[in-house]
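Hi all, a correction to my earlier message: I attached the wrong file for DNA polymerase III subunit delta. Here's the right sequence:
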Amino acid sequence: MNTWAEMATVQPLVSKMLTNSINRERISHAYLFQGSKGTGKQSLALLLTKSIYCKNKESGEPCNHCKDCHRIDTGNHPDVHLVSPDGQSIKKEQILHLQKEFTYTGLESNRKVYIIVDADKMTNNASNRLLKFLEEPSKLTTAMLLTENSQSILQTIRSRCQIMALQPLNPLNIEKKLQVEGLSGENAKLMAALTNNISDAIELSKDEWFANARKLVVQLVEVLQAKPDESLLFINNQWMTHFKDRNQLQQGLDLLIIWYKDIIYYYIGNEELIVFINHRDTIVQSTMHWSRQHATKCLNSIMEARRKLDQNVHPTLVMEQLTLQMQR
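and the right structure:
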């Protein structure tokens, strides 16, 4: 989204607050953009950055054609710094490097912006170093922290930021847009359940690896039902060889979460919410095999397994423990 008019269709309240600040020249020294994946946090940060630097903006709208706008879009503006996790976390050294960059005079203006992606993944040392940075704000510096989980960020950091809560996107609207783009009903429903980003959803729907991941989820459920004693063997020989890294394994767990939600939707009579609609018969079989209470326990266990992955617990151990819990 390259304009505030476009952003307002997705995040009307936040867009109005920020454009008012731009037009009144009252941009805060620090913002915390919080919202679930796909709600537009990074697009919002880049749009605000362009509005700060663009010399041709009108009523807060950047022109999107000048040198500054182009370099911000391509990540090449010398006075705009983007920090993202190095591996699983943002480390103290990354914040120290950022602070060092800010001791230098801006190359093209005195104004500087830094954007921290997944700010909740800062280590304790990185958080404390950033806090010192925020405690001495400069009128010519704007910080933008992006997070899906603001509660994992130090309260002392949150208190120094203007918090912008992004509203969740409507999955039905996303589903309709994806169908317009040519996705089938089930594909559109599944992609809308996984991501709020239209382009990511379209790309994922064409991914052969992801298509095989969906099949493995159904196969795992069938093994758990028909041959539970072989489920650990299935995990080690087929599941872990396909889901080779943490990000892939998280996607596999996300698919499992959707499957068990579908079981619960069937139990409570909300069949219109079922995502794996082409596998309805298998879901019905699942309800005959597992009680609603067991399905709920499995759902909680899968979500706990996902949290363990975020905490760097060994992936194979996470899946083996989860499988044993789902067997019971």
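Sorry for the mix-up. The longest helix spans residues 246-267.
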